[in-house]
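Translate sequence into structure tokens.
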Amino acid sequence: MKTTLSKFIGIASLFVLASCAETSVQPMSKDTFKVQTHAAPACGPTGARNLAFKAAAIEVIRKGGDKFVIVNDSTGSGLQGDFFSGFNQNFNQGMVVRIIPEGSREASNALSAREVLGASWQETVSKGVPNTCS
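Result follows.
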């Protein structure tokens, strides 16, 4: 009985950890910042990228803008764990984002943060960047 309970707790813990993601934003200049997302195995590389992109759009709006371009993009993965408990692959996504002023020549080719976030963009911005990839 105790072994079954231990296995259940271990599997449940993996599901909780598997859906976790952490995103940070680092200012680089007045109009440029870096978004870095670290995501658990369940997110996969696509989930990490989508979460970083969403975080970029949220940050652009929080800084008072709407238009932006991705200046640089990097992806990676790594292993987390040990020989006793096993290893899990995690995923990283980095993006350097530059806010584009409305009315500038670059604005016509820039992405709209509001369009990226969709019709309920205000609610998304107020909630902030989620810690899951779903």
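Note: The helical segments are 2-18, 44-62, 113-117, 121-127.
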